[in-house]
Design a protein that fits this description.
The protein has 408 residues and is an alpha/beta fold. The protein has helices at residues 13-23, 55-60, 74-80, 86-97, 142-153, 172-183, 197-207, 227-235, 303-308, 322-332, 359-376; strands spanning 8-9, 28-38, 44-48, 68-70, 99-110, 132-138, 160-166, 187-190, 212-216, 220-222, 240-248, 254-256, 259-261, 267-269, 289-291, 298-302, 336-347. The strands form 3 sheets. Strands 6, 7, 8, 9, 10, 11, 12, 15, 16 and 17 form a 10-stranded mixed sheet that branches. The two termini are 24 Å apart.
Length: 408
């Protein structure tokens, strides 16, 4: 256990670590716990309730060193010897050798701890970027679609196939624009009938030629030409499944920074309504990391992996939660969902379809929620990248102060 001068241990720290050692596998090399900060008067402040092991997040923000025990070997010691950051090097070396386990309890009270960076290094874009098929379901609202297509055409990427899935548009201006797009090389696929987001996208994927699929809402607005190269680079990693972007509301606040399973006993968008420049919860909204799910409003995934898990579930999730279900199926296969905050786009959320406040829409949503809870137990489980002491009623990583959540 590597401690800094002045740090204090919880009275239950030794027993908690010993109990953890008895339950982890022989390959476990690091066990870490939650921590809080001690102010000048010794008062405990700013608890850091951490996710389960997230190697991507750790690579951008060391949330483990200083609040953990390490099974170090001679190689770890030799690698760390003589360096000013030897403790962090020892922890990272041990973590690469084995597995890492998390104790979701505050066991360390720290005089000082590293600050999460306000900005991370740019993505090193892959030298070979495959063809991406961008699929955009739409119905009327030509202004939205035109903005979306204009942004795609300004995107800096070597190969983009655009497929517009037309769901019963009847506005003359929209139909004229779709005709012009078809003449300009865009594939227009007619998808008549009641709106079923899952079926529309599945049908379009069957026609797609790209190695990568980008699901995109027609109310997405591109802000920077490098967004797709960034997301595609991450999607090509062997361990990654669905990649989601940071999406902003038109007023600049965050609409999506990953999805947390269990919020609202369903799934919620992490850090919603936070301003990107704010500190938030240890700047998690600004750091690349593995997450349980991302939104399909702008999602990139390998086509073969999309198909391997059966695509979107059109029967149980025609409109809502189909992206969550997709991501959880990919996660089960070892293809982890990934939040990429360096790809930033604007999302005029649900402006095209509107909200499901009518009786038919409300009934459909209730059925989709029931299916999500039945299939994935979202009303019972805690997201491994969230924390059992964080509120299930908040998308902003707020403490849960109900008696059941506060440890004895």
């Amino acid at each position: 256990m590597l401690l800094q001068a002045g740090d204090l241990l919880s009275p239950r720290a030794a027993a908690s670590y010993l109990a953890a050692i008895e339950t982890v596998s022989a390959s476990c090399t690091v066990i870490y716990a939650d921590d809080d900060a001690l102010d000048h008067s010794g008062r405990r402040t700013r608890p850091h309730l951490k996710p389960d092991w997230n190697s991507e997040l750790q690579g951008h923000f060391d949330f483990v060193t200083g609040a953990c025990i390490v099974r170090a070997d001679a190689v770890d010691l030799a690698d760390a010897d003589g360096t000013c950051d030897w403790t962090a090097r020892m922890v990272s070396g041990a973590a690469r050798r084995g597995t890492v386990s998390h104790i979701p309890k505050i066991l360390h009270h720290r005089r000082a701890r590293p600050l999460a960076p306000a900005k991370v290094d740019p993505v090193q874009v892959a030298s070979h970027l495959p063809l991406v098929s961008v699929i955009i379901p739409t119905r009327n609202r030509v202004t939205l679609l035109r903005t979306c297509i204009t942004g795609l055409r300004a995107t800096r990427y070597p190969g983009i196939e655009i497929i517009v899935a037309n769901n019963d548009s009847d506005d003359p201006e929209t139909l004229a624009y779709l005709g012009a797009l078809a003449e300009g090389g865009v594939t227009i696929v007619d998808q008549p009938g009641p709106f079923n987001y899952s079926a529309i996208n599945n049908n379009a994927v069957a026609l797609a030629r790209g190695e990568l699929i980008c699901l995109m809402n027609n109310d997405i607005e591109v802000l920077s030409p490098d967004w797709l190269a960034i997301m595609a680079t991450q999607a090509m990693r062997p361990e990654v499944g669905a990649v989601g972007a940071q999406l902003l509301y038109p007023d600049g606040r965050i609409q999506h920074a990953g999805v947390v399973i269990g919020v609202g006993n369903a799934a919620g968008h992490a850090h919603r309504f936070l301003r990107p420049e704010a500190e938030g919860y240890f700047r998690r909204h600004s750091l690349p990391q593995y997450v349980s799910a991302v939104t399909a409003a702008c999602l990139v995934v390998r086509r073969d992996r999309f198909l391997a898990v059966g695509g979107l579930n059109a029967s149980n999730f025609p409109v809502a939660f189909n992206d969550v279900d997709l991501c959880l199926k990919l996660n089960q296969r070892g293809w982890q969902s990934f939040y990429e905050p360096r790809a930033v786009l604007l999302h005029h959320e649900s402006v095209s379809r509107g909200l499901d406040t009518d009786p038919v829409g409300a009934a459909r949503f209730a059925g989709e929620l029931a299916a999500l809870q039945r299939i994935w137990r979202t009303d019972e489980i805690t997201d491994p990248f969230h924390h059992p002491m964080l509120s299930r009623a908040s998308e902003q990583f707020a403490l849960d102060l109900t008696p059941a959540a506060v440890p004895a």
